[in-house]
Amino acid sequence: MISEGPSGGKCCTGPRRRGVLPAVMVLTGIGLNLCAPAMADDNVSIVTTGSIAPVCVFDGQVFPTAGITTAGEPIAGGETATSLVNLADSRDQAIGSYRFQCNTPAAAVTITTLNDFKLVNPAGGPRGQIPYLLKIPGLSQLAGGFTVTTAYLDATGPGVPFTERLLLVDVGTLNLFRLAPGVYSDQVVVTIQASQ
Amino acid sequence: MKRLRFASWAIALAACSVSLTPLSAQDPLGYSLASQVPTLCTIAGDVYASAGEPATSSSVAAGGSATVRVNLDQPGLQEIGRIGVECNGGSATVTLASDNGFRLLTGAGGANREIPFTITIAGTPVTNASTQTSYVEDQIGKSFRRELFITVGILNFLLLAAGDYTDTLTLSVIPNS
Question: Span A56-195: which CATH code?
């Protein structure tokens, strides 16, 4: 606290030996300073810190008609939109895309589906399921199987522009006569987590 | 025994009288005594562990150091502590210096890794335009306090690398006399 004495000028306050003091006074009294010299400067240091938390921004779009990428419907976090897949088309069909930007060197993207990568018709029983492949161009991790949770790291970092990924569905060649009639659906959930 | 002690005193006195020159009234001995009390100043203060929260204050003595955590998502003034200067007279110059040129850095700094800030002391804002600033305190023989504020701008967290940012401020006081 500032009420404390000056740290830079500690005077000679130690115990004095009787009988020596008068001699010392005569010797030092001629223009000499009885105190230790003050420090040239007195200072305090303040270390200032702050933290920037890992953060990502994340949005996407859904193509109402799979394969038609010119009319995407924007979606933000927590939102859902529907893409109608053509089961007679064995080619990859773009159902939507997502994009992200993070302030970390990496981010984990997790993709899960409600029905474990199957389009399901609840009324169809055993004939009410259509497994499909979910593909992301440029990334091979998701192309080969129906992993419930698939995560990958993507290059991100402060100032890095948005990274955009396309989501493709591949239902393969289906024999529609072996499938129960009705509506088939699944829900794809994409999440992102910034990581250091 | 007493006679022997008296004899030794007498011999000693005789020896002194031989070696000393007799003093006259016109030739006094002069002893000039002088001393000096230098102008002294000290600086100390209270630093808040969390900016803007005086309840987290801790005392910092001269020569000491303390850490304050700044809320980076809060634009505007945030009080980080109070500095007290005490001198035994005259005026003093208080200097505020920054290790990083008034920028909070993460790692070695650089693009996307530094946050400029402003310190306001004695009502005077100090920006990162220089590495230090100073002002004169002219309160003679008094102790007084100055509030210290830090200001960070509105930050785009997506353009700043996640992590801890830091800088060290040093406040020094030097007597002007």
Answer: 2.60.40
pTM to 2 decimals?
Answer: 0.71
Collect all residues of chain A within an 8 Å Cβ-Cβ radius of residue B60: 44, 46
Contact (Cβ atoms closer than 8 angstroms) between residue A104 and residue A156: yes
Q: What is the pLDDT of residue A40?
A: 44
Domains in chain B: ranges and CATH: 41-175 (2.60.40)
ipTM confidence:
0.78
3-state secondary structure B92-117: EEEEEEECCCCEEECCCCCCCCEEEE
pLDDT in tens, B18-37: 455 555 667 888 889 999 88
DSSP string over B15-62: HHHHHSPPP-TT--------------EEEEEEEESBTT-GGGEEEE-T
The residue among B31, B35, B99, B149 with the most chain A CBs within 10 A of its CB, best to mutate, is: B35
Here the tokens at position A106 are 């990496």
Cβ atoms within 10 Å of A177's Cβ, excluding its own: 6
